[in-house]
């Protein structure tokens, strides 16, 4: 009888461990679909809750366990509200086939590299956002609708100092230049150097929220930088920029 009781208790513990593992796996997969810094932070918080729940069960801390159970139960609703757009997009992607690209990626990148190279030589500041698998629309302010083919001439003309929309960002979505003169959210990272300009702070801020690729041309030095996931790659010459963009952007458009 004692042996049977011991085995039953161990089975219950194993069931709890399996339950928590599968829950964590599901949350991890959802976070990978969302691919944002916010999702990773929420995943870390949920992981802490799961660990706390497990410890409370193993140590038979009933009150603490009840608290963790309450938080975990409500977290499902919180996740659904925060990431409703991302979840809807993820399910939509599962039931539709991969669409054919509307543009030739190589040509688009060549146009971008040529335009950025020219702006860099003339030390004309620029901010270019390339949307990937997560929409950036909800993070943009102001902006002028354009919906045009991406060409080096168009990009260069937008950022000329006398252009009324040269201060904002150019947005490239699904292979087209859709907006210009857009304001982006600035980074909230207090560890960023104070010498970082507004364009660079905006590029970092947006890249921390979504998986977009953001190109910045410094008005002071002409230096070209690329921001992804809040991280900066700088001092890029045209060949290096083209190689990096092909690696980051290819086959990553929203379908």
Question: Can you give me a brief rundown of this structure?
Answer:
With 255 residues, the protein is of the alpha+beta class.
Number of strand segments: 7
- CATH homologous superfamily designation of the largest domain: DNA integrity scanning protein, DisA, N-terminal domain
**Radius of gyration, in angstroms, nearest whole number:** 23 Å
Quick one: overall form? elongated
User: Major β-sheet, in short?
Assistant: 7 strands, mixed
Give the SSE map.
Elements lengths: L1 H33 L2 H22 L3 H21 L1 H11 L10 H17 L4 E5 L10 E9 L2 H7 L10 E5 L2 E8 L14 H12 L3 E5 L6 E5 L2 E3 L4 H12 L6
Parallel strand pairs: 1-3
Antiparallel strand pairs: 1-5, 2-4, 3-4, 5-6, 6-7
Helix pairs in contact: 1-2, 2-3, 5-6, 5-8
Describe this protein's structure:
- The chain is α+β, with helices and mostly antiparallel strands and 255 residues long.
- It folds into 2 domains: 2-94; 105-249, DNA integrity scanning protein, DisA, N-terminal domain (YojJ-like (1), CATH 3.40.1700.
- Helix content is 53%, strand content 16%.
- It has a 7-stranded mixed beta sheet, sandwiched between helices.
- α2 runs antiparallel to α3, α5 (105-121) packs parallel to α6 and α5 runs antiparallel to α8 (238-249).
- It is elongated, with a radius of gyration of 23 Å.
- Mean pLDDT is 78; it is low at 92-103.
Quick tags:
alpha+beta; YojJ-like (1; seven-stranded mixed sheet; 8 helices; 53% helix; elongated
